Amino acid sequence: MSQTRSPREVFEALLERVTAGRFDELGELYAEDAVVETVFEPVGPRRIQGRAALEERFAQVAAHLPLRLEAQNVVVRGTDDAQVVVAEWDYRVEHRDSGRCFEAANIQVLRVCEGRIVHSRDYHDHLALAVAAGALPQLAAALDAG
Q1: Percent of the chain, pLDDT > 90?
Q2: Distance from C-alpha of 146 to C-alpha of 143, rounded to nearest angstrom
Q3: Topology of the domain covering 7-145
């Protein structure tokens, strides 16, 4: 009989899969009706609802991500709500082609029920990630057009 993952274990599995580039395995960590809010997303959707929509988003990211991510300084804190954890970490970001390296700060607030993420509020340094990916001109153009 398998044991249900704790919120901390779910976050750890999420981070491990992202840093390993295993985006095709992320969907199984989310509930069918999960909601993910990327609060500081500059141009894309800031709210994605449903596992299917999340899996589609993860596939898009995997297909176009020229970055290698290494998690550092990871701190996971429990809260007074047993379903909620707050995680803070930095990514050491390396562009696969140019070798340029950057750091990007991150915070996630996850609500996990029965071993699956039901809600996530994600605070990522999108500007640092755009610079690292060499996508700053595209980001600036998208912001100017929006």
Answers
A1: 68
A2: 5
A3: Nuclear Transport Factor 2; Chain: A, (3.10.450)
